[in-house]
Amino acid sequence: MTPIQEHRKGNELLLDVQGLQTWFYTRDGVVKAVDGVSLHLRPGEILGLVGESGSGKSVTGFSIMGLVGERGKVRAERMMFDGYDLTKVSPEQMRNLRGNRLAMIFQDPMMTLNPTLRIDTQMIETVRAHEKVSRQAARARALEVLRMVGIPAPEARLMVYPHHLSGGMRQRIAIAIALLNGPKLIIADEPTTALDVTIQGQILYEVQKLCREMGTALIWITHDLALVSGLADRMAVMYAGRIVESTSTQALIDQPMHPYTHGLMASIPSLGTRGEPLFQIPGSTPSLLNLPTGCAFRSRCYRADAQCEHTPETRALAPGHEVRCWHSGERI
Amino acid sequence: MTATIIRRLLQTGLVVLVMSALVFAGLYVIGDPVLMMASPEATDLEREAIRRNLGLDKPLWEQYFIFLSKAVQLDFGNSFLTGESAMHLILERMPATLELATLAMFISMVVGIPLGIYAGLHPERLLSRSIMSGSVLGFSLPNFWVGLMLIMLFAVMLGWMPAGGRGPVEDFGPIQLSIFNWEGLRSLILPALTIATAKCALIIRVTRAATRECLPQDYIKFARAKGLHERRVLGVHLLKNIMIPIVTIGGLEYGQVFAFAVVTETVFSWPGMGKLLIDSIVNLDRPVVVAYLMLTVVFLAMLNLIVDIGYTVLDPRVRLGATAS
Amino acid sequence: MSRVVEPMQLDTAVEAGTGRVATTRWRRFVAQFASSKTAVIALVVLLLSIAAAVFAPWLAPQNPFDLASLDILDAKMPPGSTNFDGSLTYWLGTDGQARDVLSAILYGMRISLFVGFVSVTAAFVIGAAVGLVAAYFGGRIDAFLMRVVDMQLSFPSILVALVLLAALGKGVDKVIIALIVVQWAYFARAARAAAIVERNREYVEAARCMALSWHRILWRHVFPNCIPPLMVIATIDLAHAIALEATLSFLGVGVPVTEPSLGMLISNGFEFLLSGTYWICFFPGIALAIVVVAINLVGDHLRDILNPRNEV
User: Fold this and answer.
1) CA B227/CA B237 separation, integer angstroms
2) Does C15 score more than 50 pLDDT?
3) By three-state DSSP, how is residue C52 classified?
4) What ranges do the domains of chain A cover?
5) CA distance C289 to chain B (A)
6) Which candidate from A65, A111, A125 shows the least CB-CB separation from B232?
7) pLDDT tens digit string along C290-307?
8) CA-based nearest residue to B222, from A20, A209, A143, A175
9) What is the pLDDT of residue A221?
10) Do the strands A102-105 and A185-189 form a parallel or antiparallel pair, or are they unpaired?
11) Which of A97, A100, A116 lies nearest to residue B241, judging by beta carbons?
12) Taking CB atoms and an 8 Å cut-off, how many pairs form between chains B and C?
């Protein structure tokens, strides 16, 4: 394997994505699911990627993993991961990275695990796909990881089928599988959305602990801004295939700049808003098949004017705080 | 689990009983076999004698009772035509049909499953579309026509295989089979191909549909996300899931082929149970027909049960009678 | 971008009679059908075959049933040969009774298609009625009717037909009856399945609230929405019926010798096959295969475009 290492020495970034575009060519037109996304991650950093359904956040995750289906075309000015140029690696090299240095956790634990295969089979194969070890060694590693994730009686868990386990347990196992080969980056696509609220908190806490302990970077994709703000170092807000604001979590909460972010924050019910009508961003997300020209948020934005017919570029308003809006910097 | 099996067995028994009544009543309507058996010059007295001899003068329900009591002992009476035990006649011809059905289904699976998977993986490609069009051809062409065409091509024009009949047989314990010697295989291949044409088409369609359904599932995506080799993703993760409907349908089709290979056996003069059946129907040889139908009903019911049990083995989510966790 | 066919739309089209809703839907259906070249070709072939069968007396060079027109010396002549005075070309050869094979095929196709269409239509009507009634009333009526259907379907068609024909004897009408008995169950099951989906929709409840009689509800509201899957079944069943009739005639229990269908012709030709006189059996076989495959291709494509899963 010949990684393109020339950037590695000077650059601390684990993941460096610039100008990612993932377009799906369907019979009804081109769906620009991801249209110019740039994000970066340092080793061990936790990024929260926030957006509504249809904002393209999951597709961003798949694009980085190389799991976009046949209908989609992934283009990027730059997509570097751990020294590898993801736009240039061969499918075999990509396969080697997946599950190894780069892992993913899916949303619905119900169907993530193959219902006809035992848990130990599904874990052992992950290890043996990347390393030539014996079944026993792989099994031992599986047990170790299961303990690390806090699953009681791991030996028994290995011998059952997925449908014998609860949703929370299955998701923990999915997390364990992601951790099996000591990845540098885990992309978690709404991992707790399908689980009970109580379990959500537990899993959030455990994932955070593990990432800190193992120094694994994490991209946590979610629609729940409140949830991820307790976990992430940095946040990026996505709308209609573009990132509209990205900064540290603290800065986002203290000083959101983009009107959409304002709307998101304002919609979060809290003790302060009790008894008052809940805030709603007017309008609804546009269909990705016919996005309006210019700023995609234009039709719902209280700041929109004629200038917004041109697509705003991403500007850094403060160090590390980037916004895609003509009118950012103006307070509410 | 055991309780459910027992319950299913009882249900099966009930179905068999009802079927037996239907079969019996149905054949009673068919016609008077005595007219067939007695010579045209026979007097009425003689016909009466034959009737009494065969017990055909008794009331219907009594005949049915006698029939049932004997049936349990597997005694279905003797053929009106040859006088031999009906059961014996059928069992004699069974191995021939057995090897025909087995070879036919084997060919169908071996050819059909890979083609179906390919068509499911790449539905837009030309080869896939040809496979699907071919499958339409496979099950729309009438069985006997396929047989005739095969005979015309391979037996008459090319002379590679005989046009009919069974090859030399070898003894395997109580039964005789012709499949394990070369000459026997030569005779077996054309009739097996005839049956396999339609069944292969069915298997292709089922496999393709199952593949199309399983491929977009999350666990396939997750398997790829884990970095597994594509051949493992398809060969283990996909295959284990599509085998469920394939085995279910394949099993049931096997039963159908085994029980009702009537047309193929006629075209190829294959001395199997099917040919016996149609000859018996046409000749109104009631004991044989009744025996055959009863055996078939029992066989198919048992097969259904076995397939259901097999289904639970294949799909760990399903447990006969168990409740979900 | 959903293209769900809402029952209300269908109903309005039926009730309103005319209007752009209906036209657009029909046009869309035609466009969808035309998207498969194979199916269009198959449909054309099928229509030509039907036309050939209908106009057989005018198209056929010879009437094979007119014994006077047959010259026994011309028996078993290979394709392309002519008769004694050159007035008649036996394009596809002649059979053992000196009948022109081409003419026999045209007349035979008549019988095959006739038997097929009549039996399918009757089975459609009977089966759909049973299925709709079962679905609408539910409960024990439903359970009973479906038990009957299931029991019938557990036996292969060939067997049921054989037993029936052994009882009934030979004849075109008896074959049709046997085919109807064999087929109605498929229609019943499909009609019931479609009707059950419809039964739970709101417009049926609304109609019930308006105290419409049950047969009006069934006929005017539920039935039109069940037509698409039933049409698919009808098409494919037509092919099965024709093939089944051919099989039965081939086995000698179908149509009588005086009214030979394609299957009977093939049966007659079978004995000559082994001695090299292949055309007596081969050409009727090709004709049968073409018709059956064409119907199946059309039906298959119909199923693809009318399948509700494809609509959304």
Assistant:
1) 13
2) no
3) helix
4) 3-94+230-270+278-324
5) 6
6) A125
7) 999 899 888 888 887 776
8) A175
9) 93
10) parallel
11) A116
12) 90
The pLDDT value given to residue C309: 47
Six token digits for residue C300: 């298959």
Interface predicted TM-score (ipTM) of this complex, two decimals: 0.85
Distance from CA of B220 to the nearest CA of A (A): 8
Nearest CA of chain A to the CA of B221: how many Å? 7
Whether B178 contacts B99, CB under 8 Å: yes
Q: What is the distance between the alpha carbons of residues A87 and A63, in angstroms, rounded to a whole number?
A: 10
Between C149 and C125, residue with greater pLDDT = C125
Residue A6 has pLDDT above 80, yes or no: no
Q: Determine the Cα–Cα distance for residues C273 and C278; give it in Å rounded to an integer.
A: 5
Q: Is the pLDDT of residue C6 over 50?
A: no
Phi-psi region of C138 (alpha: psi -120 to 50; beta: other; left: phi over 0): left
Q: How far apart are CA C295 and CA C46, in angstroms?
A: 7
Q: What is the CATH number of domain A3-94+230-270+278-324?
A: 3.40.50.300
Report, as an integer, the average pLDDT of A2-24: 69
* CA dihedral sign of residues C97, C99, C104, C105: positive
What letter represents residue C294's amino acid? A
Most confidently modeled range among A111-120, B6-15, C158-167? A111-120
Which residues are bridge partners to A39 per DSSP? A17
Query: Are C276 and B156 inside 8 Å of each other by CB?
Result: yes
Answer whether residue C11 shows pLDDT above 90.
no
Residue of B176, B150, B145, B146 whose CA lies nearest to B162 = B150
What are the residue ranges in chain B where pLDDT is below 50? Answer: 320-325
For residue B218, list chain A residues with Cβ-Cβ distance below 8 A: 106, 108, 111-112
**Inter-chain CB proximity B226 and A97 less than 8 Å:** no
Find the residue in B nearest to A98 (Cα).
B227
User: How far apart are the CA of B253 and the nearest CA of chain A, in angstroms?
Assistant: 24
What are the chain B neighbours of C158 within 8 Å (beta carbons)?
A: 260, 262-263
Dist CA C248 CA C182 (whole Å): 13
Q: Do B152 and C243 touch (CB under 8 A)?
A: no
- Residue A84 reports pLDDT greater than 80: yes
